[in-house]
Amino acid sequence: MNPLTRFLKKLSLLVGRRRFARELDDEMTFHRAQVEAAFVAEGMTPDAARLAAMRQFGNATRLKEKSHEAISFRAETVIQDLRFAWRQFRKSPGFAVSAIIILALGMGVSVAIFGFVDVALLEPLPYAAPNRLLAVDEMSAAFSRSNLSRADYGDWKRMNHSFSSLDAYGGAGYLLRTGSGTEPVPAARVSDGFFSTLGVKMMLGRGFLPGEDQPGKAKIAILTYGTWLKRFGGRRDVVGRSVNLSGAAYTIVGVLPREFEFAPRRDSEFWVPLLEKNGCEQRRSCHNLYGVGRLRDGVTIEAARAEMKAIAAQLATQFPGSNQGQGASVLPLMEIITGPVRPILLTLLSGAGLLLLIACVNVASLVLLRSESRRREIAVRGALGATRARLAGQLVTEALLLAAVGGLGGALIGGWLMLLLAHLIPQSMLIHLPFLGDVGFNTHAALFAGAIAFCAAMVLAGPPVLRLALQNQPGGLRDGLTDGDRGAAGKLWRRLGANLVVVELAVAMVLLVGAGLLGRSFYQLLHVENGFDTTHLATAQVMAKDNIYAKPEQKVALYREITRRLKTIPGVQSVGITTDLPVQCNCDTDWIRIVGKPFHGEHNEVNERDVSPAYLATLRARLVRGRMLAETDDRNHPRVIVINEALAQKYFPGEDPIGKMIGDGGFAPDSMRQVVGVIANVREGAMDDQVRPSEYFSIYQDTDIFFAVAVRAAQDEKAILPAVVSTLHGIDPDLGVYGESTMTGQIQSSQSALLRRFSTWLVGGFAAMALILGVVGLYGVIAYSVSQRTREIGVRMALGAQRSTVYRMVMRQAGRLTAVGLGVGLVSAIGASLLMRKLLFGVAAWDAPTLAAVVIVLGVASMIASFLPARRAASVNPIEALRAE
Amino acid sequence: MAKKPDLLPGTLDMLILKTLTRAPLHGYGIALSIKRFSDDVLTVEEGSLYPALQRMLLQGWVKGEWKVTETGRRARFYTLTAAGRKQLGVELSQFDQMIAAIGRVLRDAEEAG
Q1: Is the four-CA dihedral A47, A49, A50, A55 of positive or negative sign?
Q2: Helices A803-835 & A790-798, crossing angle to 10 degrees?
Q3: Interacting residues of A622 by C-beta distance below 8 A, sequence separation 6+
Q4: Cβ <8 Å between A58 and B73
C-alpha cells in the first residue's frame, strides 16, 4: 500500500476514532463472551467462567491501547506528552513563566535584529536581476572608490565588453519656483540607459530614449512618485507638461513607480538626462559621476574588473595628464548601498545571538534544576514501565513546548521591537539607508523565529536527556526512588550546571566588553580633535541661480553682502563662507604640483575648499605660520593659498612652505598660487576618517554658486537659524537655502556617529540583560547547591565547623566558577572584539581599562549573587538541618 | 498447567492470513481455529491478536465486516483481500526459506556432533 493511501486511512481512522474504539470494544466483548461460553461448556460455573475469561484476556485497556497504537499516528502520543507538559508547567507556573519570559526576550531581540539584517543584507535590491548590477567607478591612490569623469565614462562605455549596458549618474540641484517662493530641490543627472539598466519601468509616460542624454538634446525630466504626488497633485496628464528648473524649462516625460528607490541618490526629486557638459565634465581630470553596469550573461565580476582595469590602464597611457594612476573599481551595487551598515548589523546580530545563547543556557539550567527535583517522578514513571525513549520523548516535548511558546512570544516582541527601532532611526540616516525603513515582521522573520526556537528547544532538551542517558546503567533509574543518594546525582548536576554558569558568565563578559568598547569608541569619536570650535556654529547650504550670478564679480558681491547682512543678526560674532563645511567628507579634491619639486605626472590629491577671508577665523582654526586669507585676496590681487599642516608635512617636509608656489599638474598660469599661511588641521572628512592634506583658496578668486555659510553665535546657535534663513532670503528671494543646522547637530547626526550611537545603545542593552541573566544563573547554581548540601553543612557544623568556614566554602565554590567564567570570557571577549574592530575607533580590542572595568563589574555582581546563598548556608541551624531529613 | 510453546516470532500474521483463506472469521474464530488446527499447541493471545488484526486492516490485507453469528450475536468478520493473499504468499515463501535454513543448520550440527 502506498504511503499516501495509508496516511489517508490513518487520517480517516483518526477522524472516526470514537467509532473505532466502540467497534474494538464490541469485538472484544464478543470475544470474551465466546471464551466465557466455552468455559461454561467445559463445566465451569458462570461466575468462575467470567473471571477466567477476564484473566485470560488480560488488561483490556492496555490491549485497546496496543491495538490503537498499531494504527494511530505517533502524533497522538505527542499530544499526550504535550498535555502532560502543559500540566507540568501549570503545576510550577513560576518556572514556566520565567523560562518563557527569558526565552521570549532573547528571541525577540534576535528576531528584531534579524529583521534589519534581512532588509539590509538579504533582501535583494528592487531591480531586475540585482545581483548582475555592479558599481563601476574609478579609483586612485587616495581613494579606493572615486567618481567617474564623463570623458572616461564615455570611453569605458565604448570599449568594454563585460557589460550589456553601462550607465552613469550624478547629483544635481535645481531651484524650483513654487507658490511660496524658490525652493532648492535635489535632483539627479543620468545617462540615457540608466533606468533600463536597473530594469525599472515607468509608471506613467516613458523613460529616456537612447541618445537623449547627449549635449544639445531637448531638456526632459522624469519625476519620482513622491514628487508627482506632492508637487503635481498626482495628475495623470502631467506627462508632456513643462517644469521650470533653475530657470530652464524641462518637459516631463515620465513618472517613476512608487516602489522605485535608488539609495545613492535617494532624495532626488527630478531625474534628468546628462545633456550639456558642465564645467567639470569638460575636463577629463574632473570626476563627478558614478557608474552602474549590468554584467553580460556568463561574465564574472572578476573578469569585468580585470577588463575595466585594463581599459583604465590603456586610458592612463593615452591621457597621462589626467588619467595617470586612475584605476577602476568594480563592486557589486549591493556592496555600495549596504556596505556601510554591514559590519554594524553583523555585530548586532552576533550580539543578539549571544544574548539568545545566554537566555537559552539560563533556561536550560532552570530545566536541569527542575529535572533534578523531578528525579523521583521520572524514576516512578520508569518503574511503572515507561521506556527510556518514552521518558526522553516527554522531556523533549516539554522543551519544545517551552521553546514554542517562547518563540511565539519572541516573534511578538521581535515584531514590536523592529517597529520601535525603525522609529528611532533618524531621518538623516534613512536618507542614505532607505531600506532600513522597510523593516517589518515578514515570512523571513517568521522562519527565522521558528529556526531559533527549534535550536533553543535542542539546547533546552539536551541536559535532561543527557542526564537520562547517563543513568543508563544498572539500577540507574531505580536510584531515583531511594533516598539519601543526593551525592551521586547532585554531582552530575553540579558539573553540568557549573559548566552552564561558566558559559553564561563568559558570554556576559563578551557582551559587556563589546558594549564597553563601542561606548568608548563613540566617546572617542565625539571627542576626536576637529581642529576648530564646533560649538555655537550655525550653518546653512546656499544655492544661487547661475543666470543671475553669472559673472565672478556678481558672486563676490553676493558673498560680501551675505557676510555683511548676516553679521547684523543680533548675537552673531562672525560669518564665513565655504564651498564645503568641515566634518563632511574628504571630497572635492584637487591635484597639485609644487614648484621646484620633482614631478612625474603623479596625482597629488588634496581637499580643495574655496573660503571667504573670515571663514577660517569663524571656525576658530589655529594659524600656525604666515597669515590667514584677507579681504584683499580678490581677483585684482595675486592668487594665494592657505594650507593645513598635513599638506605642509607631506609636501614640504622640514621646510617653511610660506612663499612657495603651488599649481596644477601642467602649471597652468591661472592655477598658480602662493602659500601665505599654514593652519592646524581642520577635520574636513568624517570623524572616523583620517585627516588629509587640504588647501584653502579665496572664494573671491574661485567663485561658485553652491556654497555654505558658517555663522559663529555668541549664545544659542540654534536660535539664530531662522534669522539666518530669513536674512538670506531677504538678500535675494531666489536664493535656495537648505540644510540649515548647527555644527554640533551635524556631528551628532553624522553617519559615523549615528551608527556608533545605535550600536552602543543596543549592545549596551544586550550586555545589561546578559549581566542580569548571567548573575541570576550564578545565583541559581550556588543557591541550589547550598540547598542540596543543607544536611552536609548541618553535619559539618554539628562537628564544629565555624560559620566563617561555611561562608568560605560556599564563596570559594562561587569564586572558582566566576574566575573560570571570567577567564574564558576574557579570551573570548578579546577574540570577539578583534572581529568587530572595524567598528572600533581610537580604542584597541584589548583595551585594558575596558577589560578591567568589565571584570570588576562582573566579579562584584557575581560575589553579591553568591553572598546571599552563602549567608543562608552559614545560618543553617545544624539541629534543624539534621532533623529535616 | 504445562507451559505451551510460544508462537514463533513473526509468524502470527502468516497464521492469521492462512486461517482466513478457508473462510471469513471473527477474531475469536481465528484464535479458535489456529488452536484447533495446531492440535492445541499454538495459542494466539488476545493481546497480540487484536493489534495484529488492526495492523492488517490498515495494510489492506484483510477487510472487516460486521455480521451476525449463528448464535445471533454481532461480530466483526475478517475476509482476506487480494493484497492479503499476495502477502501470505510472500510470508510463506520466507517462512519456508527460514525453516529450510534452520533445518540445514540443525542437520549439520547433528552430523558434526
Answers
A1: positive
A2: 140
A3: A531, A679, A680
A4: no
As a whole number of angstroms, the distance between CA A55 and CA A320 comes to 107
Kindly list the distances between the CA atom of residue A545 and the CA atoms of A173, A852, A879, in Å, as whole numbers in the listed order. 11, 59, 96
Residue B1 predicted with pLDDT over 50: no
| Residue matched to cell numbers 515584531 | A415
Look up the pTM and report it. Answer: 0.70
CA distance A398 to A95: 12
Would you state the cell numbers that stand for residue B81, as one nine-digit string? 483481500
Contact A773, A359 (CB under 8 A): yes
Cα–Cα nearest to B40, from B4, B74, B2: B4
Distance CA A328, CA A352 (A): 38
- Containing A532, the helix (H) or strand (E) segment is none
* Contact yes or no for A425/A348 (Cβ under 8 A): no
- DSSP states of A14-33: HHTHHHHHHHHHHHHHHHHH
A816 Cβ under 8 Å from any chain B Cβ:
no
Residue A119 DSSP code: I
| Cell reading at A525 | 569619536
Pairing of strands A133-139, A287-295: antiparallel
| Burial group, residue B106, by CB count within 10 angstroms (0-12, 13-18, 19+) | exposed
List the helix and strand counts (H, then E) for chain A.
Answer: 29, 22
What is the spatial distance between Cα A248 and Cα A189, in angstroms, rounded to a whole number?
15
A596 vs A665: CA distance, rounded Å: 13
CA distance A371 to chain B (A): 35
Q: Which of B49, B54, B61, B87 to mutate to test the interface with A (most CBs of A within 10 A)?
A: B54
Q: How far apart are CA A249 and CA A242, in angstroms?
A: 6
* DSSP H/E element including A414: helix A388-424
Q: Does B47 touch chain A (CB under 8 A)?
A: yes
Nearest to A193 by CA among A215, A209, A217: A209
> DSSP letter string over A749-808?
TSHHHHHHHHHHHHHHHHHHHHHHHHHHHHHHHHHHHHHHTHHHHHHHHHTT--HHHHHH
The one-letter amino acid code at A594 reads: I
Give dist(CA A409, CA A108) in Å, integer.
7
Long-range contacts of A368-372 (CB under 8 A, 24+ apart): A368/A463, A368/A464, A368/A467, A368/A493, A368/A496, A368/A497, A368/A500, A369/A493, A369/A497, A369/A780, A369/A784, A370/A92, A370/A95, A371/A395, A371/A463, A371/A464, A371/A467, A372/A489, A372/A490, A372/A493, A372/A784
Contacts of A30 in chain B (CB under 8 A): 26-28, 73-75
Per-residue pLDDT, averaged over A745-753, amounts to: 82
pLDDT digit string (tens) for A423-480?
A: 877 776 776 677 777 777 888 888 888 898 888 888 888 777 777 776 655 444 445 5
Contact A27 B75 (CB under 8 A): yes
Instruction: Give Cα separations from A767 to A260, A756, A757 (angstroms).
Output: 39, 16, 15
**Residue closest to A412 by CA, chosen among A101, A42, A144, A734:** A101
Q: Is A835 on the interface with B (CB under 8 A)?
A: no
* Angstrom distance (rounded) from CA A221 to CA A251: 6
| B59–A contact, CB cutoff 8 A | yes
In this model, does residue A486 exceed pLDDT 50?
Answer: no
Residue A666, Cβ neighbours under 10 Å: how many?
Answer: 11
Close Cβ partners of A642 (under 8 Å, ≥ 6 residues apart): A616, A626, A628, A629, A675, A676, A677, A678, A679, A695, A696
Spatial CA neighbour of A855 closest among A826, A832, A835:
A826
Query: CB of B65 within 8 Å of any CB in chain A?
Result: no
Give the pLDDT band of residue A885 (cuts 50, 70, 90).
Answer: low
Model ipTM value: 0.79
B75 touches chain A (CB under 8 A): yes
- What whole-number distance in Å separates Cα of residue B6 and Cα of residue B12? 11
